Amino acid sequence: MRSAFGTYIDFCMQHIMDGWRLMQQKYHNCFMSNAEESWPVVPIVIITNGESLDLTEFQEALRNIHGRAYVLVVTLGFGKEHEK
Questions:
Q1: Residue 84 is assigned to a structural domain of this protein
Q2: Is 3 inside a domain boundary?
Q3: What pLDDT score does 84 carry?
């Protein structure tokens, strides 16, 4: 994610929630003092190999988004397991 909040990268691709929590914290710090109607919608791109250890927790977090983010999850990989 590149924005006023910055970029978070976990090169091991083992955890999504660390970056998700950091993004939420920075969003709240930047905008929560403003009126809710002025909060921007945030585009978020998550690139994973599909083997994140906290994928279930992340799926639950996505269920709780209420109109302030567009989330694109990209799963990349190669080999027989990823071709299924």
A1: no
A2: no
A3: 66
- Computed on alpha carbons and rounded to an integer, the radius of gyration of the chain in Å comes to 14
Residue 44 lies in a domain: yes
Domain count, the chain: 1
| Token pair for 52 | 């994140």
Q: What is the pLDDT of residue 57?
A: 93
Which residues constitute the domain of residue 22?
17-75
What is the pTM assigned to this prediction?
A: 0.69
The DSSP output letter for 25 is H
Please report whether residue 52 resides in a domain: yes
Q: Please list the rounded mean pLDDT of every run of 10 residues in the chain (84 residues).
A: 52 76 85 84 81 88 81 78 66
Helix segments in the chain, DSSP class H: 17-31, 55-63
Do the Cβ atoms of 79 and 54 come closer than 8 Å? Answer: no
Rounded CA-CA distance 8/23 in Å is: 8
